[in-house]
Every structure is written in C-alpha cells, then in structure tokens.
Amino acid sequence: MGDTFQTIVDRDAAPQDARRLARSVVDLWVAEGIVLADAEAGWGLGELPAHPPGPRWHKAVDDAYGGAPEGVVVHSERRVFHSTFLAREPSTSCPRCAAVAADPLLISEAVERWHRTGEAEFRCHACGEAFPLPAWNWSEDHLALACLGFQFWNWPRLSEAFRARTAELLSGHRIAFLAGKV
Ligand SMILES: [Zn+2]
User: Cα of 93 to ligand 1 centre, how many Å?
Assistant: First the structure.
C-alpha cells in the first residue's frame, strides 16, 4: 500500500515570511473547513504535527469518493521537497537560457549545501551565469528548494481550483506541485 503525498510548495517565500504566509493559507483552509485549526501528531507521516482534515475537506479535491485523507503538514523552514511520480529521467534547467544542467552530481552536491546553509549557486555551462539553486527549474517539479510547503498525506488528488486558490494567497510566487509515495 504505502502512503501518498501531495505537496504545494511556494518556491519564492523568503525565510522570514514563511511562517506568516503559512498562517494566512491555513487560516483560509480552516475557514473553508478544509482542515482543522490545531495541528496534532499522528495525522501525518512520523511525528510531525499535521492539521487533520476538516468537515469540508472534499472541497479541495476533484473526486472525494472513497477518500480517507490524513493530515496536512506545514513546513515553514528550509527544505528540499521532492516528488516520486516521474515520467522521465529528472533534469534541471537554467533559469535564463533553459540549457539542461550538464552534471547531475555537481547539482546534488549543491542541493546538499543549500539544505545545510541556505546558500548555493550553480553555474550554467551554456550561458556562463551563476544562479542561486532555488532559481533553477526542475523537470516535472521533481524537486523544489524552498522555505514553505504544505504536504497533504493520503488525500485524493487535489483539484486545480483548490491549488489555484492557494496560489492566489501566495502573492504571485512560483508554485510547485509535487506528488509521491513512500
Ligand atoms: Zn544558462
């Protein structure tokens, strides 16, 4: 069986804004009945507190039939978010010229450094410019390096409308949507 997750990530939330933005999103979901206000352990994977589904959780999904969602974990600290449903070999492309990064090993070293320190640049082999790692574009959203993400455990597929409503609250930031299974 395993557990599935869907993560809505704000790629552009600054570290100092992440908690405030997280609260504004959760407040809206609580008002809509999507989740409950108080996060508790036992509703997500592991011991991280998660917001249990609210009385109208089905408003967030296309097809609620047979769904038995668990909690929503809110991450508001630096994190490497990932997905596992990939159609092709994952790749990373330059934010300026879209050239695909030449060396995946170098990239993974930089990802590790970013996770540790919050700072890592990667130089494009094609246009020669160096960009902070979170600016790079990851194929099929297979990675997102960010400070804000909402992870839904074992929910039916979140609807486009729900994801769009959430994105509106995040003031024009780039949004990644990462799904997977553990
Ligand atoms: Zn480039």
Answer: 8
What CA–CA distance (Å, rounded) separates 176 from 48? 22
Q: What is the distance in A from the centroid of ligand 1 to the CA of 143? A: 19
What is the domain partition of the chain in residue ranges? 26-65, 92-138
The token duo for 102 is 């030449």
Return the number of other C-beta atoms located less than 10 Å from residue 55's C-beta: 10
Q: 134 CA to middle of ligand 1, Å?
A: 14
For each of the chain's 182 residues, which pLDDT tens digit applies? 689 999 999 999 999 999 999 999 999 999 999 999 999 998 887 788 999 999 999 999 999 888 899 999 999 999 999 998 777 778 899 999 999 988 877 888 999 999 999 999 999 999 999 999 999 999 888 899 999 999 999 999 999 999 999 999 998 899 999 999 98
